[in-house]
């Protein structure tokens, strides 16, 4: 086994981790993304952090490769980024090729949800499972499907867009143009909007979780509604692909059982009883490290 670097490219920050041969993150760096400065600037700053991490290697060791997860549409084969809604400054660029040239190292690139799913599958809540579906809930909602150890991409690399599964055809209008998408019920902005509509007060999704934990009735009701929608989506996915293990990650997953208990109960009404009985819905055990470890695994 070799030393590798995992990178999580986000809308506002870039996290990097130096990962040892026994899959431990032994050193970290974090910088602002500043995508509006363009792809040359972003890749140059990533390369500088990779060089910095090399200083933390044991004597005589080298970096064998780099893995990176990015949000939005991309081609994991060519390493090109397409339209990234939150990162227009690096959209439609040969991102991997540019970074690879700067690093003089092999670079693997994939969608951030798929990368985090690899981390949870091999090192976290999905380990010791043959198959798993990972759903990440934060500012948006995404998912990745792992079947018998392999990621499922679909014919155009878009398998797992669970955030835009319809859970209520008469529901809230989504920015994608449809109605009743899962994202309009479970994402952080959706929780904030629902809480504001009920209470007249605008607070963050994290604050809603804190208030729910303290017993705030409105916050509890908002999380239960989000959990109900999540359960509908899980039931539909389970009936379609017949996978039993669901791992929920992202910032909203920090609500834990306040969200997931409602999902576990809801899904029973939307799929066969014998299917529902076998579904396991658990929270991520790695948190933000899922993306770094998944990227490192991909680099290997």
Major sheet characteristics: 5 strands, mixed
CATH architecture of the largest domain: 2-Layer Sandwich
Strand segment tally: 12
Question: What fraction, in percent, of the residue positions are helical?
Answer: 25-40%
Instruction: Briefly note the CATH topology name of the largest domain.
Output: Nucleotidyltransferase, domain 5
- Classified in CATH, the superfamily of the largest domain is ATPase, nucleotide binding domain
CATH C-level of the largest domain: Alpha Beta
Mean pLDDT: 94
**Span between N and C termini?**
8 Å
Whole-number total of structural domains: 2
Instruction: Compute the number of helices.
Output: 10
Low-confidence runs: none
What's this, in brief?
The protein has 300 residues and is of the alpha/beta class. Helix content is 38%, strand content 21%. The protein has helices at 39-54, 95-103, 112-123, 183-186, 188-199, 205-213, 217-241, 257-267, 273-276, 289-299, and strands spanning 3-9, 13-19, 25-32, 63-70, 74-75, 80-81, 107-111, 132-137, 141-147, 150-152, 245-249, 280-283.
